[in-house]
Design a protein that fits this description.
- This is 2OG-Fe(II) oxygenase superfamily protein.
- Pfam families: HalD.
- It comes from Litoreibacter janthinus.
- It is a single chain.
- The chain is α+β, with helices and mostly antiparallel strands.
- The protein has helices at about 5-10, 20-35, 50-60, 110-115, 120-130, 190-200, 255-260, 265-270, and strands at about 40, 65-70, 95-100, 135, 145-150, 165-170, 175, 180, 205-210, 215-220, 225, 230, 235-240, 245.
- It has a single domain (about 5-270), classed as Jelly Rolls (Sandwich).
- The strands form four sheets. A seven-stranded antiparallel β-sheet has the order 1-10-6-13-5-3-2. Strands 9-8-11 form a three-stranded antiparallel β-sheet, with no helix packed on it.
């Protein structure tokens, strides 16, 4: 199969490589959506060939996914028994999934052909209007695939990163909608409304049914979000592209071991003097 980015990305609809009025129109719409509710979805960013190629590639390396399980609240903090039992900081959920580390994706493979396509990074940066914007320099984490099936999932949380860039590759048989409460903690923590989201009684939740090939830009620091429980045998595959505010950053050895099940020499060499918390998490 042809793995040039030009055949995998729908450049007719999203001419990200060509400065001009068409690209400007796509940018304008993405920025408006990001401003309004912290989320922009570029439907059908991949072509049908792109979806097929990325799915085949994810399947071919799926066995290398590293499973991780934990119990976490929406804030990734420890339990605080001094708070009332119904405080949202005391609601813990199971979180489990598998990350396929970035070094499973070859330079000439489909996923990196999209990532390395001329203009891809610049386009994402322009949508997000982030001044400091660098690819994560972590060979295990610059672009990964998040794999989850029935019984796994991402329960309600706020991201520690300012934004997340994801590309839907394959959905589970059922379930897996992306649900989020736009800007729920924009002004303050808004624990009362967060509580309603966690117990399923909020009317502030937007549901997105993302399809294979959709590119999503999401500011998850202020918007509580989750992936609704998955059903069926087919795994859900989502690629996650990581960008950070400084060049040369990699993950801490501890976090890398936890997420990917191994570390490389670079994780130990670089740990002094570099922020270690730049994960999509
Ligand atoms: O898998 C997704 O669609 C998003 C998961 C998520 O919220 C995250 O990686 O922080
Ligand atoms: Fe998230």
């Amino acid at each position: 199969m042809d793995h040039s980015g030009a055949s995998l990305i729908n450049l007719t609809r999203y001419p990200i490589h060509k400065k001009g009025s068409e690209r400007d129109a796509v940018l304008k719409s993405a920025r408006e959506n990001l401003d309004r509710d912290g989320c922009a979805v570029l439907k059908g960013f991949l072509t049908q060939d792109g979806i097929a190629a990325l799915t085949a590639e994810a399947e071919s390396v799926a066995e290398n996914g590293h499973k991780s399980f934990n119990r976490t609240n929406a804030y990734f903090t420890k339990d605080d028994p001094s708070l009332p039992a119904d405080d949202p900081r005391r609601q813990f959920f199971d979180r489990s999934n598998a990350f396929i580390p970035a070094d499973n994706f070859r330079k000439d493979g489909a996923l990196r052909s999209v990532h390395d396509f001329d203009g891809f990074d610049a386009f994402i940066q322009d949508c997000l209007q982030e001044e400091k914007f660098y690819r994560y320099a972590d060979p295990l984490a610059d672009v990964i695939v998040n794999m989850a099936s029935e019984g796994n999932g991402f329960p309600w949380h706020f991201d520690t990163n300012n934004f997340t860039v994801t590309l839907a590759i394959q959905n589970a048989d059922a379930g897996g909608a992306f649900e989020y409460a736009p800007g729920i903690r924009e002004g303050d923590e808004n624990f009362d409304e967060v509580k309603h989201v966690l117990d399923g009684t909020s009317d502030k939740v937007t549901t997105l049914e993302l399809e294979p090939g959709d590119l999503q830009l999401f500011r998850g620091r202020y918007s509580l979000h989750r992936v609704a429980p998955l059903r069926g045998d087919r795994p859900r595959y989502v690629a996650i592209f990581s960008y950070v505010e400084e060049p040369g950053m990699v993950g801490s050895p501890e976090r890398t071991e936890q997420l990917y099940g191994r570390t490389l020499p670079i994780h130990w060499e670089r740990q002094a003097g570099h922020r270690a918390d730049a994960f999509i998490d």
